[in-house]
């Protein structure tokens, strides 16, 4: 079992180390990704979350479609 030193969230299982690292990057990171659309004040901890928001809420930004991994 691994615990986050900043908030005591716990991680167990085979991928605990990677899950803890991702948790720290997304929950405790200072860098935030701001939506580029004028007037939209949404911010995101991850670039992929911002891109998903842009595709759904601002189609005029003309982002490339998501690519299926299968």
Automatic annotation (TrEMBL):
Q: Extract the ranges annotated as region (Disordered).
A: 51-70
Q: InterPro entries of this UniProt entry?
A: Znf_C2H2_sf, Znf_C2H2_type
PROSITE patterns reported in the protein's UniProt record:
ZINC_FINGER_C2H2_1
Q: Which residues form the C2H2-type domain?
A: 35-58
- The domain of life for this entry's organism is Eukaryota
> What protein name does the entry list?
C2H2-type domain-containing protein
Q: Which organism is it from?
A: Lepidopterella palustris CBS 459.81
The lineage, from the top, is: Eukaryota, Fungi, Dikarya, Ascomycota, Pezizomycotina
